[in-house]
């Protein structure tokens, strides 16, 4: 039997992150052969991975990274089972290292097959499953390329990337602010123009039905009822619809006895309120139509309009 030294055990521990006793046992089984000992630990990881395959890995660390040229970014979610592991410094360091490797790839398949410290990313995940004793896997993977890419990571729980149309001097500031918007507000598309008409129709029916149901309970409790909109997206507000809304507002002002000479001062605000009340889907799902988190008096599109010839052309978001 080969003599196993403390130095060998310590070296294997540094290489794999496995516990001292696990490293010693692996070296004993491998008769002192370092590479074989790593193989022993990986086999252990495979067995643990098989046993924990049906476990829920809803905790972890989400990392967003951008390359030095700022024209490519990735988001990688390294998932585990418990918050205790997710907050471990070694686990977060591993997530950062994997995100750095991911920057050199363009797909999840290529990333998992990439070299990571002499093995593949997938084999490293299996190895770490054995080391940590929890299911370790990639829960989210996104790549974004654009003339300028910015990123934001919120508490290792949410990662966001934003692609801009050009690398203007103020691009870093804009990309950071919009990335924070994406992380915070969870938009799913750029504009209401991206929505399919059938989706808008089904969402309109569902949302109005939900509000009416809520109002039944609110009425029972004697509370203020929610506004029941006619529409939920700017895509539905045709010129005819807006013209009809304008006429209804004028009729309302006339019924209230407001002097005709002040209608032009009141009308824009009321029409704006009508649009806001009937575009709730856009405000929730569309990045450019959301209220800007740093100044809720303007939308993201309005914020961008003050920043010169820079447009948001794409974005990605991953959360646990």
Structural features, described:
The structure is a single chain. The chain is built from 13 helices and ten strands. It is α+β, with helices and mostly antiparallel strands and 320 residues long. It folds into three domains: 46 residues, Helicase, Ruva Protein, domain 3 (Orthogonal Bundle), CATH 1.10.8.10; 126 residues, Elongation factor Ts, dimerisation domain (Tetrahydropterin Synthase, Chain A); 116 residues, no CATH class. The chain has a three-stranded antiparallel beta sheet with strand order 1-2-5. α1 crosses α2. The chain is elongated and about 100 Å long. The mean pLDDT is 90.
Brief rundown of the structure:
This protein has 320 residues and is α+β, with helices and mostly antiparallel strands. The chain has helices at 6-16, 20-29, 34-51, 83-86, 89-102, 108-113, 121-132, 171-185, 197-221, 239-255, 263-277, 280-285, 300-305; strands at 59-66, 72-80, 115-116, 119-120, 137-145, 148-154, 158-164, 291-292, 295-299, 312-319. The strands form 4 sheets. Strands 1-2-5 form a 3-stranded antiparallel sheet.
User: Uncertain segments of ≥5 residues (pLDDT<50)?
Assistant: none
Tell me the name of the CATH homologous superfamily of the largest domain: Elongation factor Ts, dimerisation domain
Query: Whole-number radius of gyration?
Result: 27 Å
State the share of residues found in helices, binned by percent.
Answer: 40-55%
**Percentage of β-strand residues:** 15-25%
Number of domain units: 3
Number of strands: 10
Largest sheet: 3 strands, antiparallel
What order do the SSEs take from the amino end to the carboxyl end, as H and E? Answer: HHHEEHHHEEHEEEHHHHHEEHE
Overall outline: elongated
Instruction: Indicate the CATH architecture of the largest domain.
Output: 2-Layer Sandwich
First-to-last CA distance: 47 Å
């Amino acid at each position: 039997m080969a003599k196993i030294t403390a130095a060998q055990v310590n070296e294997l521990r540094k290489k794999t992150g496995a516990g001292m006793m696990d490293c010693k046992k692996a070296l004993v089984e491998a008769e002192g052969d370092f590479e074989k000992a790593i193989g022993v630990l990986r086999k252990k990881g495979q067995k643990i991975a098989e046993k924990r395959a049906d476990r829920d890995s809803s905790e972890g660390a989400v990392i967003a990274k951008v390359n030095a040229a700022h024209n490519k970014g990735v988001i990688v979610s390294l998932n585990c089972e418990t918050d205790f592991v997710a907050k471990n410094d070694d686990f977060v360091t591993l997530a950062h290292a994997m995100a750095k490797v991911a920057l050199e790839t363009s797909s999840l398949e290529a990333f998992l097959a990439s070299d990571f410290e002499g093995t593949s990313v997938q084999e490293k995940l299996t190895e770490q499953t054995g080391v940590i004793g929890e299911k370790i896997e990639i829960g989210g993977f996104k790549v974004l390329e654009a003339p300028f890419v910015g990123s934001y990571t919120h508490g290792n729980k949410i990662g966001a990337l934003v692609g801009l149309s050009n690398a203007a001097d103020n691009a870093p500031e804009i990309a950071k602010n919009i990335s924070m918007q994406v992380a915070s507000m969870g938009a799913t598309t750029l504009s209401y123009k991206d929505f399919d008409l059938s989706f808008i129709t089904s969402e309109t029916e569902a949302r109005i039905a939900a509000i009416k149901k809520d109002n039944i309970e609110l009425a029972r409790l004697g509370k203020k009822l929610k506004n029941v909109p006619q529409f939920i997206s700017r895509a539905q507000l045709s010129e005819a619809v807006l013209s009809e809304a304008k006429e209804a507002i004028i009729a309302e002002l006339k019924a209230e006895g407001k002097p005709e000479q002040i209608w032009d001062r009141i009308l824009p605000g009321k029409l704006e309120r009508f649009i806001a009340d009937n575009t709730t889907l856009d405000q929730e799902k569309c990045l450019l139509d959301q209220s800007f988190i740093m100044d809720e008096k303007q939308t993201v599109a309005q914020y961008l309009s003050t920043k010169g010839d820079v447009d948001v052309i794409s974005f990605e978001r991953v959360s646990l």
